[in-house]
Amino acid sequence: xxxxxxxxxxxxxxxxxxxxxxxxxxxxxxxxxWYQQALGQGxxxxxxxxxxxxxxxxxxxxxxxxxxxxxxxxxxxxxxxxLDDSALYLCASSxxxxxxxxxxxxxxxxxxx
Amino acid sequence: xxxxxxIPQYQHVQEGEDFTTYCNSSTTLSNIQWYKQRPGxxxxxxxxxxxxxxxxxxxxxTFQFGEAKKNSSxxxxxxxxxxxxxxxxxxxxxxxxxxxxxTRLTIIP
Lengths: 113, 109
Known about the structure:
The complex is a heterodimer of chains A (113) and B (109).
Chain A: E1 5-7, E2 10-13, E3 19-24, E4 31-37, E5 44-50, E6 53-57, E7 64-68, E8 74-78, E9 87-94, E10 103-104, E11 108-112
Parallel strand pairs in A: 2-11
Antiparallel strand pairs in A: 1-3, 3-8, 4-5, 4-9, 5-6, 7-8, 9-10, 9-11
Chain B: E1 5-7, E2 10-14, E3 19-24, E4 32-37, E5 44-49, E6 55-58, E7 61-65, E8 71-76, E9 85-93, E10 96-99, E11 103-108
Parallel strand pairs in B: 2-11
Antiparallel strand pairs in B: 1-3, 3-8, 4-5, 4-9, 6-7, 7-8, 9-10, 9-11
C-alpha cells in the first residue's frame, strides 16, 4: 500500500452538478498530481500542486480546478459535470525531484448520468 | 509534447509462457517509468530507467532502455496468474507523467 488515500470511493452525479474529490498524500511527500482515467485508457494528467500552488496543467478546461492544503492534502473540483467526465480519478503523491516516481491512491470512480 | 506508443495493446499467454511489451517514441526520452495496474486497481510503480542501454531486473521482470533512448521494453519470464494486469510505460517530464497506451496481459491457466 502506498499510504495515499482518496475519498469517496465511488460517486454518482447528474450532468451539470459539481463534485469535490479528496486526496491525502503519503507522509513526507510535498507534491500531488491528479489524473483522469477513462475506461480502457491510460491515465491523463489534469494538474499538479506543489506547496499549495498549481505547478502544471494538462489539457483540461477551467471547470477542473484544485487546491492543496498546508498538510499537502488536495482537492479536485469539477464544475458543470458532463457525461464524458465519467472516469476513475487518481491522485498521486511524490517528492518534487527531477524524475519522481508517483505513488497513486486507489482512485475515485465518478459516474455522471 | 512527447508521446509514447506501446505495443501490443493486448496479449493473451498461457501460464508459464514469456511476455514482452514495447514502448516506442519518435524523440529521445530523458527517462522511462513502468507501472502495473491490476484489474480494478490503480497504477503501481515498478521501475525507472534513465541511462542509455540500461537493463534492470526484478525477479522475473527485465526492463530495458534502448541505446538511443527512444524505446523501452518489459519482459516477463514464465508468467504467473499474479502477472495479470495492464502494463504502462510512462515518461516523466514537465512535472507530469505521460502514459503510454498500455498493454493488457491476460493469463490462460
